[in-house]
Amino acid sequence: MTKTNYSLQLKALALCGLIAFTNCKEKTKQKEDTAMTYDNVLLQEWTGPYQGVPAFDKMKVEDIKEAVEKGMELSLAEIDEIANNPDEPTFENTIVAMESSGKELDRVFTYYGIMSSNVSTPEFRDIQAELAPKLSEYSSKISQNEKLFQRIKTVYDASQSKPLEADQQRVLDLTYKRFEMDGANLDAEKKKRYADINKELSTLYTKFSNNVLHDEENYVTYLTKDQLGGLSEGFIKSAAKIATDKGQDGKYAITNTRSSMDPFLTYSTERELRKQVWNNYYSRGDNGDEYDNNQIVADILKLRRERVELLGYENYADWRLQDRMAKTPENAMDLMMAVWPASIARVKEEVKDMQAVADANGDNITIEPWDYRYYAEKVRQKKYDLDSEEVKQYLQLDKLTEAMFFTAGELFNYKFTPVPEGSVPVFNEDVKVWEVTDKDSGKHIGLWYLDPYAREGKRSGAWATTYRSSDSFEGEKNVLASNNSNFVKPAPGEAVLVSWDDATTFFHEFGHALHFFSADVKYPTLNGGVRDYTEFQSQLLERWLSTDKVINQFLVHYKTGEPIPASLVEKIKKASTFNQGFSTTEYLASAIMDMKFHLADPANIDVDKFERETLTELGMPKELVMRHRTPHFGHVFSGEGYATAYYGYMWADVLTSDASEAFRDAPGGFYDKDVAAKLVKYLFAPRNSMDPAEAYRLFRGRDAKIEALMRDRGFPVTKE
Fold it and tell me: What's the pTM?
């Protein structure tokens, strides 16, 4: 599963996504009135229903460069006004003013994110490459504005003896820490080098991302009719349509994305084709051509190390993790290495089982990475009499969407209602929109956009993002949030059937959306999050997919409408820890490599050799690979959102497993109203307005324990 959240690349390039939001209320109103007069629609204030919505139907690539440059100009003018304010620095005239700045640019970034992630084109990528260093310079002009930082520091220092209100103190602390971590205390010479490094990195991040997208778009495997053995009817129809759309009528296309690769490797009887598809997917960014990312990764690692050394840190990981829940790379590594031995031991058991099946079938092969999914499915059928293809018949995308709405209604009291088609602009005809309201009061909360299908120009994976977040310091705002997936679009009239893993990911990303909708914070900065904590809420929501209420109401056969048989449900639950060796090991390998790369000396590093030798030292089973091999590890190298933070999914998993046991043990189970109320109050609504560890203790009454995670995965529990 790919679990990617938010528009990470843009936020990594532009610090303003965290800092920026316009001035005092009166000036804000004047500025927004002015913005309405711009010819460039991307700068204009959003109009229409639901407190205004993005004009996705009017956005054009040729407008983006002008809009970004003008937005940066306007934002920097506001920052300069704050920095040069002759009045004594206060929370209101400095921090609140910063929170309110940059509204035009923030609107532009919404369009920029869509063009980058959902509807990218070669023309946009050229503009993106041109804008990347300019966005970095813009960010540095804010983070290195000496007058601005001195005002922040004055307010911060005063608060140490006379603390502000809790939410004010939190946003002040976060703002000061962010500036400090970004070199605000450096001398002029080091500041210049710091800014130059950020500029170089921004270009490398964009190139890395575009190289991966190139390989996803250009390595397509075309099948003939006699090469379809084992594939489902729905998958074959989808592959035929994709091939036709690509000018290969009469053939069947396996695209170079996980949503196409994964089912092909699971069911195709054509071993050589499985190997080809596997190689295409895991060689993205690693083909020794002009789109190869190995040297780019090496350059990124060197620049990141040099940058943090300017700040006095030994390595990037020490710098990055200081404001995360783990605090240090040692703590993160300790968690991962506590799970790793049990994980690879389970892989050996799984491989043994698969090899036995292959031998019994007389296949005369040794299990290789391109065989793992195929034979794991055979083992699943043998051990649990569970056929994943049979399960998929009961996992319709439309019904899963209804199941998510039901869950949101039970836990958050939300109601989702489709908006009339055409009343809200969308950027592609496949995007659908729902209004979110409170079930009892009818109060409007926001809009939820769903972009479900893979297409050319859309990055792979699944993610959630916001077009407008909730905060209340300038009056209440509704939330505009989206979920984005890469399900293979079905042939006309066919249902979208997904795997259990994909259904879990669908719930996961919806958890991010619910986190956005339920936010109860005053200031925009508090809508952010701590990376090894924000995945927790979405991972927790995955648990409701397997609850009886969801299974009994929404898992129905796509043709007959009959509920999923109880016997099949029992098989699913019995097999819940099946293949945990594979899924845990492929994830942990990526997370450990992320940390190892940033702890290593990057001078003269050979990226391919380092990956290979480190995995060998770890005892990585040869039958599988990292979930994200280094040359296409976009979480870590297309920006900085997950750099030295990919471990965060495991950290969040500990919280998830522990929190789910709170529901399991409650009188009402997973729908217990008292526990659900605490869930919303302490784990969802606060966002980053309180320390995550304290928020979890308020919910659970104690810190989380790793034993729950081990139980969930069926691994041995050595202590309680």
Answer: 0.85
